[in-house]
Amino acid sequence: MFFVTIAPPAFDVDLDLRYATADNLTGRPIFARPLCLLHPDAAVALGRSIRLASAQGLRLRIFDGYRPPSAQWALWTALPDPTFIADPRTGSSHGRGVAIDLTLATPDGTVLEMGTDFDDMRPLAYHADTSISVVAQRNRALLLGIMAAAGWQHYAYEWWHYQLPAAAAYPLVEDGALGPPLMGSGKSSPG
């Protein structure tokens, strides 16, 4: 079993892989390669999400999928807050290839208003936050409905994060073990 590369044309999505750029909470690129990888089970669920979004006249824009353990360490070092960043000693659903961070966009690429940007680590990013605009609340609810109908579970503290049910039952995967390496050499270490 190898991870599935999520990219057009096989997957009709927009990619905005923030951890391959400096536009993330660390302020520097974490991944050496801009790839979105998912466990095959998650790729199937993503396919359902794409079809449901398309039926609403929308597209999915993906920020992150599989995240190697060494990338999790980089995020934890920048923000060691378990509300927003899974402790790398126990691993995250991203490190298992069964989580995805994403938003909704129109067919022309305009991102729907969600009240905050991706990786905004404040209570404003909570799914149930009502201090954001009504439009943003509706858009979050629309994203939640699409993802839930496709078989994903949401994370209450990040409107963009979804994972497969029983995510912890999937094994953690080292960079390059089940697909192309994201970190460069394919080797990972804490730090």
UniProtKB/TrEMBL annotation:
Catalytic residues, chain numbering: 158
What's the EC number here?
3.4.13.22
Q: What class of enzyme is it?
A: hydrolase
Q: Which Pfam families match?
A: Peptidase_M15 (PF01427)
The annotation note on the cofactor reads: Binds 1 zinc ion per subunit.
Q: Which GO terms describe its molecular function?
A: D-Ala-D-Ala dipeptidase activity; metallopeptidase activity; zinc ion binding
List cofactor names only: Zn(2+)
The parts of the chain that form a coiled coil are none
Q: Which domain of life is it from?
A: Bacteria
Q: What keywords tag this UniProt record? A: Cell wall biogenesis/degradation, Dipeptidase, Hydrolase, Metal-binding, Metalloprotease, Protease, Zinc
Q: Cite the SUPFAM superfamilies for this sequence.
A: Hedgehog/DD-peptidase (SSF55166)
GO annotation terms (biological process)? cell wall organization; proteolysis
> Reaction(s) catalyzed by this protein?
D-alanyl-D-alanine + H2O = 2 D-alanine
Residue positions binding Zn(2+)? 94, 101, 161
Name the residues annotated as site: Transition state stabilizer.
67
NCBIfam families found in the cross-reference section:
PRK10178.1 (NF007557)
**PANTHER family, alphabetically?**
D-ALANYL-D-ALANINE DIPEPTIDASE
The task this protein performs is described as: Catalyzes hydrolysis of the D-alanyl-D-alanine dipeptide.
Family note = Belongs to the peptidase M15D family.
Kindly give the HAMAP family that the UniProt entry links to this protein. A_A_dipeptidase
Q: What is this protein called?
A: D-alanyl-D-alanine dipeptidase
The organism of origin for this protein? Niveispirillum lacus
Which gene is annotated as encoding this protein in its UniProt record?
Answer: ddpX
